Amino acid sequence: MSSRPVQILLLLLVIGSALAVVEVKHENRGLVSELEALRSEHEQLRVEWSQLQLEEATQASHGRIEEAARGKLGMAEPQRYVIVERGAAAPRTGDGS
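Structure tokens predicted for Cell division protein FtsL:
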């Protein structure tokens, strides 16, 4: 076997491996860029989740619910009410305390 075909084969292998390195580096850069974008989105979603949890805690507080019931809906605590016990003959009345 002469050295000329071997040299051509080696040259083709070197060119092929160089092209593979370029392709892998290009793909790596794209993946790193995507990773950074996903990390940024993750941080934004984490902040939004914290804000939503805080808002939920604020909206669900008993004082706020009671204020809305009294102010917006005109509700008030009953002054007199009747307690009916299961199997009892006559209901008991209470004074609301």
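The chain has one domain: 3-94.
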